[in-house]
Amino acid sequence: MGSSSVITLSGDLLEGYDELYDNYSSFYNSSYDYCCAGGDVCDLNENMHFGAVFIPVLYSVVFFVGVLGNGVLLGVLFQCRKTWSVTDTFILHLALADILLLLTLPFWTAQAVQGWTFGTPFCKIIGAVTTINFYCGIFLLACISLDRYMSIVHATQMYSRRKPWMVQVSCLAVWLFSMLLSTPDWIFLEAKEDDRRLITECVRNYLMFASQSLHDWRLASRVLYHTVGFLLPSAVLIFCYSCILWQLRCGSHSLQKQKAFKVIMAVVVVFFLCWTPHNITLMVDTLYSESSRETCGARKSLEKAIIITTCLGYVHCSLNPILYAFVGVKFRRQLWQILRSLGCKLKISAKLQAASSRRSSIWSESADTSKSIAI
User: Fold this and answer.
1) How many Cβ atoms are within 10 Å of 227's Cβ, its own excluded?
2) Which residues are 201's β-sheet partners?
3) In angstroms, rounded to a whole number, what is the distance separating the alpha carbons of residues 44 and 79?
4) pLDDT tens string 265-299
5) Alpha helices in 29-162 (DSSP H)
6) In DSSP terms, which residues pair with 200 in a beta bridge?
7) CB 42 within 8 A of CB 296
8) CA nearest 145: which of 164, 170, 163?
9) pLDDT in tens, 346-357
10) CB-CB contact of 54 with 311 (8 Å)
11) How far apart are CA 64 and CA 133, in angstroms?
12) How are beta strands 34-35 and 41-42 bridged, if at all?
């Protein structure tokens, strides 16, 4: 083969690689310059600067409030561990998942400010921890809703005191399944340098596969996230609580039983308020990414919406303890008792004293929601 042929072949290979790299960059990483319809180059540095200011401020508040609130919740549960109910066990694991998710916030904050400086192994670990605990949160809420559905609608207990290990097996299954769903993070996540902005980011690198599979892998990852991590669990929650609401509306149930149900219902509603905008935004982003009609303005708006809705999703990690404190009478009572035992001079209102004097005998023997310490 002549030298001119070698040069031509090398040029073709380099050109092909450059095209593949440009496709990867514009398709996956939102911070790269993005080529929109009509061949216009869309500079997304404005969104990068917005995230560098918005993310640290919000994540700092969420981290402080969330770790403090969930820490107090774990303290209350530990103090009353001898009287745990099924719901308390699920809430314990939910609080642990929230804390682990909150512990990843400082790393994402650092990335927003100065890029990812922790290397690829830590990128995979932090990304996987984020994914695992997101899935755990929604799956644990689904477990609680199924337990309540069977107890209220069908008067059947999924868990009994004769087999307390069953609830632990259920929680273990949730954690293992969530770990399985984090497999794409272990495979694709890496600390990748953006040569155009001279910054390193922790992103999923689908470039390790053939170019024709690039879009397929990203689309499959998004579909998995939306279907298993949101749509299916959401369908379970909506079905269970719709049936429960109808049963409570048509049947004769005590006021305390309905109040206990309202706490769990509030937790579920807050979850939807925090995570639904993020999932809708990602769905729109997926559809736009597959379209050839995307404009620069739409891309900028989508990227800013992703930043805001992702932050809103993380806010959820700090809200559950606040809900228990403001809605759950028993949680407040247990917290006051712990603070009093530590020497704090607190006055318990007459309403709380009256509530503490009543004995809970609402649900059946499976240690039900009304007997939950957190509620």
Assistant:
1) 11
2) 192
3) 50
4) 787 888 889 989 998 998 888 887 766 566 777 77
5) 45-79, 86-102, 105-114, 119-152
6) 193
7) yes
8) 170
9) 454 444 444 444
10) yes
11) 18
12) antiparallel
